[in-house]
Amino acid sequence: MSNHQKSHKRLTLILVCGVLLMFGFAYMLVPLYKLICQKEGINGRSGATASSMAGLSIDTTRTIKVTFLTTLHQHLPFTFKPVKPFLLIHPGERKLIYFYAENKTGHDMTVQAVPSITPGDAARFLKKTECFCFTQQYFFKGEKADMPVYFFVDPAIPSSIKEITLSYTLFDVGDFLKKQQHFTKGRIDL
Amino acid sequence: MTDQHIATQDNDHHDHDSHHGPAKGWRRWLFTTNHKDIGTLYLTLSFILMFVAGTMALLVRTELFEPGKVLLNPEFFNQMTTFHGLIMVFGVIMPAMAGLANWMIPMMIGAQDMALPRLNNWSFWLLPFAFTMLMSTFLMSGNAPDFGWTFYAPLSTTYAPKSTDFFIFSVHLMGLSSILAALNIVVTIFNMRAPAMTWMKLPMFVWSWLVTAFLLLAVMPVLAGCVTMMLMDRHFGTSFFNAAGGGDPVLFQHVFWFFGHPEVYILILPGFGVISSIIPTFSRKPLFGYHAMVYATVIIALLGLVVWVHHMFTTGAPMDAQLFFMYATMLISVPTGIKVFNWTATIFKGSLSFETPMLFALGFLVMFTIGGLSGLMISLVPSDYQYRDSYFIVAHFHYVLVSGSLFTIIAAVYYWLPKWTGRMYSERLGQWHFWLTTIGMNVTFMPMHFLGLAGMPRRIPDYALQFTDFNQICTVGAFIFGFAQLIFLYIVVMSCFSKRFPAATSQVWEGAHGLEWTIPSPAPYHTFETPPDLATVNAAAPQLE
Ligand SMILES: [Cu+2]
């Protein structure tokens, strides 16, 4: 009988360890997801960090249309739009596009744009060397600015992809302020 | 004094009861560590909650009887669909399966009780508190949780009502309860089997529950992690699911469905075990392909862990990932098909009789297959783009959950009720119950396939005019289906408390095999205090032939 109880205890202990491990696994999914998204470009995540374009040559035989889209999160009182609705680009060529933003909230505000790229399979080939979306952006009351994105399309992109949409959603990040305040690199104040 | 006198006179198991039988009154139920009592508690709670969640479903169907507002305002409609789903999954199907496990597993493997009886008491008593807490949100100011049973972020974080915190804690309690129950079941099956009961002599019901218990242990902690992340996002300034802080709402869906898809197998696998007990009994043949059934169950569970993205095909996963999850999902129909064919082969050339448990088992076989086939349709990525979030999905999962899980639970109750209460039930009423339920169920859910294909979205209290006719058919069916369950209630209550029906023999069903049929009906409070011997175990396991 006591033998029985002992083996109950051992098995229970093993199973409890398994349960705790799986609880930890739920949290492990967070960095795992970020890693896979960055590798695969899911949800434009690869677009959230700077890439280098060393050693790429321009493929002039192909032209890809990159369309820009902007959304304001939760009716944020901002104006936010690309200065041009789309650009034509050869793979391997670097282009610059500005996004115009104006703070109409009536007070100072920190915002951040979160990128997303469709189709999903194009996401990891549209790369940025510099982007206003890499950091939070501080806007004084009524401030207007053009914010830059330098981007290129990796020539390795499948030939089936002829159009890419780069979309930004502008979030109020007042609750999630990062250290580097008043960051405005590359911005043209208007 | 007199009791003792009588007890010493006749020398059967009544003698036993007077020494360490159940305590009297409410204390018996609050403090019990007896697996049969706890099984009864689980089944009773499940039965009560079935009527609660069923009433909510009827309110939803009433609102959908006509376009425009019929009865409920949209906020309340959303709360009703949310609670209907949550309670049916966590309060009806899961506790009912746990109740069956508690009652039957020790009796099927020749054990005297569950391995961890006190833990068993706790794992049940967590549930009434969890559901009281969940239901109490209706009494709070502001809305009750209204984001659907899948509680997607940011609906359940940024935009959720204040009462969501109560929802989160009640999910924690339910999860803890399931984990403890699963733990207990695994330890019981591993350590408490009668010495003669080797792995390949285990009844399919026990095998199915063993696999289910491992699934529970694997994914309930992930659900707990998921709601904990929600809680942290809501109150502790993290942003797991909030893009503004660097999180991602799609991550929620990954964490949720990593739990959510195995959950559907948690809901159905014990039911497969029930069917594997009932069909051989009323076909008077051993189960066809016992070994294949065991392996198929294990394979279904393993595959079930790697298909969750089929719930998220439209969230922008890369093509390769979509293909992988599509093929993996389609692959599950192979082991499931093996099971369906084996049950059919068991029936083939059997000497059939159609008592109520068999009727529900056959109803399961036909209608679960319909649900399986519509599941195959939505596993295809291109079709899923069309069917997603439409009534086709509602039709699909009700075919697998109602005729899958609910029908198997009802079949199990009819099958083992005489063993539990010692009395037969009214066979005539049972037949009525079956036919009304089956007709009602099909009238409710069959038209939903066509509504979905025609483009009616789910989770909306209103719809376009052209959907009216079919919605009215659905609503009529739902009321037939719902009210038919009152017959079930009457039958069960009568079998428990009335002396009108004949007493059951220990064999109960002519063709039944298994250790549970070797003990008297009603099953005495304590059974198998000495484990059954090799001959008894072998005689009870017909799959050996
Ligand atoms: Cu699934």
3D structure, described in words:
The complex is a heterodimer of chains A (190) and B (545). Chain A has 190 residues and is of the alpha+beta class. Chain A has a single domain, classed as Ctag/Cox11 (Ctag/Cox11 (Pfam 04442), Sandwich). Chain A is 21% helix and 36% strand. The radius of gyration of chain A is 23 Å and the shape is flat. In chain A, the strands form two sheets. In chain A, strands 3-1-9-5-7 form a five-stranded mixed β-sheet, with no helix packed on it. In chain A, strands 2, 4, 6, 8 and 10 form a five-stranded antiparallel β-sheet that branches. Chain A has one helix and ten strands, in the order αββββββββββ. Chain B has 17 helices and no strands. The N terminus of chain B is likely disordered. Chain B has one domain: Cytochrome c oxidase-like, subunit I domain (Cytochrome C Oxidase, Chain A, Up-down Bundle). With 545 residues, chain B is an all-alpha fold. At the A-B interface, α1, β5 and β9 of A face α7, α8 and α9 of B. The structure holds copper (II) ion. Copper (II) ion (CU) binds next to α9 of chain B.
